[in-house]
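Morning!

As promised:
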Amino acid sequence: MAGQMKDKDAYQRLNYLYQAAHCVLSQNPENVELARFYCFTQKTIARRLVLRQDPSVKRTLCKKCCSLLVPGVTASTRQRRKSRKARFTVVRCLSCEQSKTLLNDPDHCLWVDRPEAQQKQPGPGPSAKKQQPKDKKPAESASSKPRAAQSRGST
Amino acid sequence: MNMDEALVRATIPQDLVKVLCVEPRTRYKAEAFTEAFLKNSIKPRSCHNLKSMLTHKAVVLGYARPKKDKGKSKRAKGLNAQQKRAMKVFQIKPEHQRYELFLPLHELWRQYVIDLCNGLKPTCNPQFVQQKLLKADFHGAIITVVRSKCPSYVGATGILVQEFKHIFKIITKEDKLKVIPKRNSVFAVEVNGFVSHIYGSKFEQRASERSAKKFKVRGTIDL
């Protein structure tokens, strides 16, 4: 029980840092440095305590310079086609030019959402469940994320 | 021309707000966003110093395209310390150091702490609150230097913006970014009537390391 409570504190802290980065960027879209600092702190906390972050959170952070990727403000989002059918969403960080390519697949299902992920390992099950309400909260503050999800689903 | 400008500046009609799932921003926010968007989307021209390049550098006429090495992966490697210093990754530019820009951050922090302490009623056990605050995040809090070995730091108040290993960076009401060492100072944090003191000498860790580390209950505090 005590371990669970401790985890909750850490998740709340991660959630706060993620929201703070969004808050700073919405106040002043050019203050990338501070948002990056918060995201960097969030990343290091998650690394030290070995907490898994939700893919939707990870997709909005730059892997190279840890800045928060908001389309139009700190990142550019483009649709690209490699072969006939496969289309990709390319998100490029404007400060370090690192890009991440996401396949547009409406049928894609994350591992966390799949039923076998919940059944097989009873240990990490509750932590995965806890993560879901956690990343719902930043979605309210971050208007960008639902938009990205929509574009992924529609194309 | 005037018509176009009016069109651009027009607010979104009420019936469209629901359909598009967007909400209009305040004028100040919209302006800030537009400025940043334009600045980011217009790339600096690389050929503006073409003339100087032609005069000062040898131009190779028989140019062969360099071969691509296939073995190299495109995976992000992160930045090393040298690149970080060159990019100034965490340095806040002087034009962004304004107190009122950080007030929403402080508001967010208050909500976070109240949520963390389960409502933070006046009947709460102070030790429970302190136990929670020990692992909490202090970015966005208003802190005051209560005691310090260096008397000129005493009384400095501001919103904590960044926390490093040995340093707090706070922004004061006079829009100044102050750097205050943690060692040999005592800070006070106020939330909803609860005032808790932070002994800086015990706090000399990075913000991320504190959440994983265990604090020793015993220990002498000398100032």
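The longest strand of chain B covers residues 142-148.

Hope this helps with the figure draft.
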